[in-house]
Amino acid sequence: MNASTPATASHATLAGSAEITGHPMVLSLSCKNSRGIVHAVSGALLSVQGDITDSKQFDSPDTGTFFMRVEFTTPESREAVEAALEPVREEFAMDLGLWEASRKTRTLVMCSKDGRTLNDLLFQQRAGTLSVEIPVIVSNHLELQPMAFFYGIPFIHIPVAKDAEGNSNKAEAEAKLLDLVAEYDIELVVLARYMQILSDDLCRKLEGKAINIHHSFLPSFKGARPYHQAHDRGVKLIGATAHYVTADLDEGPIIEQQVQRVTHAQSAREFVIRGREVEGSTLSRAVKWHAEHRVLLDGKRTVVFD
């Protein structure tokens, strides 16, 4: 099979007509597109009695990269599946990931004073609608500590400030953050309105593993009070962008964007309220897709399998 066009398959039993019982798993991969990729992957899953319940593929016309995400069940162990896929990975030089579908992504959330997006994430984690486990919250302020206590999650205060001589403790603060990432076995860092710019070095260390949220007014309305600036200019759409963090400020690969129409009759305060709602839902959706292994990097872009 030449997998060169977007495709979707659903519930294709590999081992005959009888449905295979077992535990659900998720496989995602990317490699240079060539003939036989889907056939090879399917054959490897067949060898471990895999039952494909969902499969999506995409061939990037810009980079020539083939992307695939597969949901399947198998009675075999994760180690057995990895062993079956290893020859395929080597043959096609794949960047391949395999996860237990029930396993939650360990996520560290960073915040400052605005708690709307943090609350959205914590509520959805508690409700079971986000496949994440949040073992710790980090903030450069103390205002949101009560929210962390309410949800029963440790809150670590790491202030970032300058001393009387103008020297910043940012390097020490980021070192503490990386210590927490290691201590809590963190797989994803989410900046939920964390109002500090990360250093280039930290961005590189967290590449592909950190998600940020911001309003979609950039570059027109920079700095403080962007919603008030937008209101003064009479904009008709407000929105939010969730993206991976890179050293290029607010220019990382975009995962999700949402917009909402506003009118001249709404106040600047209403702009802020509606904007925060959009930011919360946009960030939650991006985190959900990442935690479900639906997002793959394609250069400066992302491929998102819904």
UniProtKB/TrEMBL annotation:
Residue numbers annotated as active site: D250
Name of the top EC class for this enzyme: hydrolase
Ranges for domain ACT: 26-106
Keyword Phosphoprotein attributed: no
Coiled coil feature spans: none
Domain of life: Bacteria
Pathway it works in: Purine metabolism; IMP biosynthesis via de novo pathway; formate from 10-formyl-5,6,7,8-tetrahydrofolate: step 1/1
Keyword Hydrolase listed: yes
Similarity annotation: Belongs to the PurU family.
Protein function: Catalyzes the hydrolysis of 10-formyltetrahydrofolate (formyl-FH4) to formate and tetrahydrofolate (FH4).
Protein name, as recorded: Formyltetrahydrofolate deformylase
Native source organism of the sequence: Citricoccus zhacaiensis
